[in-house]
């Protein structure tokens, strides 16, 4: 079952990567970003870097609290009763998945910023 899931994830990544690569090679996206002249101004570079840094720091702090809550629920489920055990485990897994999404959103924010600066 896991092999099929990983194979499906690889196929989706290839498809998304191909679409993004095609957009960059088409000249549409390159022409759009070159007309904006993002990297021309020193003040823009500083302000945008500070904004992206603040976004990443806020996401990191929020991720810390989400992970702390997930660990609390996990510990509580280990010492809990059978009645609430499934519910606590489901909540802990949900918090862990939320933390995972926050991690990948941090990476996405930084990658989009790098693409905007480099194109």
Could you walk me through the main structural features you see in this protein, from its secondary elements to its overall organization?
The chain has helices spanning 2-26, 28-36, 42-78, 82-118. With 119 residues, the protein is mostly helical. The chain has two domains: 1-36; 39-119. The longest helix has 37 residues, at 42-78. The two termini are 40 Å apart. The model has no long low-confidence stretch (mean pLDDT 83).
Q: Describe the largest sheet.
A: none
Q: Structural class, from secondary structure content?
A: mainly alpha
Q: Please report which band the strand proportion falls in: under 5%, 5-15%, 15-25%, 25-35%, 35-45% or over 45%.
A: under 5%
**What's the mean pLDDT score?**
83
Shape: flat
User: Percent of residues in helical segments?
Assistant: over 70%
Cα Rg: 20 Å
Name the features:
119 residues, 2 domains, 4 helices, membrane, transmembrane helix, transmembrane, DUF3169, DUF3169 family protein
Overview in brief:
With 119 residues, the protein is mainly alpha-helical. Helix content is 91%, strand content 0%.
Please specify the SSE layout and strand pairing:
Elements lengths: L1 H25 L1 H9 L5 H37 L3 H37 L1
């Amino acid at each position: 079952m896991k092999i099929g899931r990983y194979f499906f994830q690889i196929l989706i990544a290839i498809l998304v990567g191909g679409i993004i690569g095609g957009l960059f090679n088409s000249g549409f996206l390159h022409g759009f970003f070159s007309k904006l002249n993002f990297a021309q101004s020193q003040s823009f570079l500083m302000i945008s870097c500070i904004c992206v840094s603040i976004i990443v720091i806020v996401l990191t702090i929020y991720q810390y609290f989400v992970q702390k809550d997930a660990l609390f629920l996990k510990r509580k489920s280990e010492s809990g009763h059978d009645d609430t055990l499934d519910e606590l485990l489901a909540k802990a897994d949900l918090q862990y998945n939320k933390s995972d999404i926050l991690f990948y959103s941090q990476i996405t924010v930084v990658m989009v910023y790098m693409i905007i600066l480099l194109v």
